[in-house]
Design a protein that fits this description.
The structure is a single chain. The protein has 155 residues and is mainly alpha-helical. The chain has one domain. Helix content is 63%, strand content 0%. The chain is built from eight helices and no strands. It has helices at residues 8-25, 28-38, 43-57, 67-77, 86-90, 93-108, 111-117, 120-133. Helix 1 (8-25) runs antiparallel to helix 8 (120-133) and helix 2 (28-38) packs across helix 3 (43-57).
Length: 155
Amino acid sequence: MILGPISWLDCFVFLLFLIPQLIIHVGLIKTALWLIGASPFLSKYAMPMLDELSQTNSLTQVVPAIQLPYRFICERLFTSKEEQTAFIQHATPFQDFVIRCVRYAFANLPAFIGRVFLSKEVSLPFLRFRMLRHGYLSSPIPWREVRMVRFVVTQ
């Protein structure tokens, strides 16, 4: 099944599915502190609270997000076409920005937050929304959930 490109509406709907799950599985304060810490302008206010929280709840590191907009602007506006990657040459600014956000998130999100992004409580409703938006009332491809018994890795 091929769905159309991601739109602003898709991003907004994804956040509507994601935010309640982050609050349920991660907690409002922990999520808010990480988001503030990832913001280049607010992170200096959250750092003392994050340091305290990291000692008690295994929140390890917050990476300021200033690199994302800086690289976007430099590579889109101040790099010649010949030096840009093939993706940047052909992608719209929106597509480029979304891909950069996804890369940034998976490179810098703590695992306990990233796990929620990929959970079925977020991804399945989002998939259903995208399918409905593109005219699919049900999945044209049969699928079923596979539940596996957890296993322990020994050394």
